[in-house]
Design brief:
Layout lengths: L2 H9 L3 E3 L2 H9 L6 E5 L4 H6 L2 E5 L8 H13 L5 E3 L1 H7 L3 E5 L9 H8 L7 E5 L4 H14 L3 H24 L5 E6 L9 E2 L1 H7 L2 E2 L4 E2 L8 H7 L3 E4 L6 H5 L2 H5 L8 H5 L2 E4 L2 H4 L3 H15 L14 E3 L12
Parallel strand pairs: 1-2, 1-5, 2-3, 5-6, 7-9, 7-11, 8-10, 11-12
Antiparallel strand pairs: 3-4, 12-13
């Protein structure tokens, strides 16, 4: 293909992202001019600039953790999706490529559901499923996105900057011969879920170890008694999809669990509620932010929480009415 024709094809490319993490990385890499549609859960800037193609029947609802778990579990058991597409709008856009995901069919619309709707379009776009399950795969996803948009070189520059930040943390931990902190990170409160996929790798790169986690796999339900026996030194609460204020509303559900007050992290004041987006939304830059925050929570003698991240974490004894950010 002649160079001028290739450049024209790239410049005219229309992409849609049905995966918030992909949307974030597209913006991070400066490729948003090629983005023509997003999901209702994408970041604020994208939602202010791009039409929402993916919607969910749960939008605007204020259910408890238990109610949300019940609704999604029931839908999954019946083989139904809670997500749908604005098909007329998608038809008008006529995208060339659509980024989808298959990491979690509960959290986002999956490729199967997308394919069923896309089959009705006159112009058939290329569906590119993104299914990272480890931190390295998240980094590779950035390369896939940029490569599909004809700009693979920007991904290398993007990732080099992020990996420099994580390497700095590891270097400091090694120089100080810091032992790993015994940690547990919870992805859900009622019922209790451990953490999985890339999150255990975030914990490790921040100088911790979560022996109750599922590295590279799905998070699973966990009996609270296991957590009591494990006796973590630090507890991180980051329910998937919840901002800090929403998570704080349900901290009483943990506090009433038998043995909660005997856990080392509780007795030492090392229980933190964090913005879940730093862990459950796998854009490369967001996860690196999460690693930097965790390093400061695990090893406050070596690291401090940056001003940019102070609004992303509170300690468990704070309430919505007396909230003070970690200093």
């Amino acid at each position: 293909m002649p160079g001028w024709l290739y450049n024209h094809k790239i410049n005219c490319m229309k992409a849609c992202s049905f995966f918030p993490a992909a949307t974030q990385m597209i913006y991070d890499m400066g490729l948003q001019d090629h983005l023509y549609g997003v999901t209702f859960e994408c970041h604020k800037k994208a939602l202010s600039e791009k039409p929402k193609i993916v919607r969910c029947i749960m939008e605007g609802k204020n259910y408890s953790s238990a109610e949300i778990d019940s609704v999604f579990s029931s839908a999954k058991a019946q083989g139904k999706s809670l997500y749908y597409l604005e098909e007329e709008l998608l038809q008008q856009i006529e995208p060339d490529i659509i980024f989808t995901q298959d990491t979690c069919e509960v959290c986002q619309i999956d490729t199967k559901c997308t394919a069923a709707a896309v089959a009705k379009l006159k112009k058939q776009p290329l569906l590119i499923p993104l299914s990272p399950n480890t931190l390295e795969y998240v980094y590779a996803t950035a390369l896939t996105i940029a490569g599909a948009m004809g700009r693979e070189e920007v991904a290398y520059n993007y990732l080099a900057g992020l990996q420099k930040r994580t390497a700095n943390i590891l270097d400091i931990l090694r120089r100080n011969a810091m032992p790993l902190k015994r940690v547990v990170l919870l992805e859900w409160i009622e019922p209790i879920y451990n953490c999985g996929h890339w999150i255990p790798f975030q914990v490790a790169q921040a100088g911790g170890i979560d022996m109750l986690s599922c590295p590279g796999g799905d998070s699973v339900r966990m009996e609270f008694s296991k957590m009591v026996k494990y006796d973590p030194e630090v507890v991180i609460v980051a329910p998937c999809g919840f901002h800090i204020e929403r998570a704080m509303e349900e901290m009483h559900l943990l506090a009433k669990q038998p043995g909660w007050e005997h856990i080392s992290a509780v007795r030492s004041g090392n229980v933190f509620i964090c913005d879940a987006g730093l862990f459950t939304q796998p854009s490369a830059s967001t996860l690196v932010d999460g690693i930097e925050l965790l390093s400061a929570l695990f090893h406050p003698g070596l690291f401090s929480v940056s001003d940019r991240l102070k609004r992303k974490v509170v300690s468990s004894h704070q309430t919505r009415h007396t909230r003070h950010d970690i200093q």
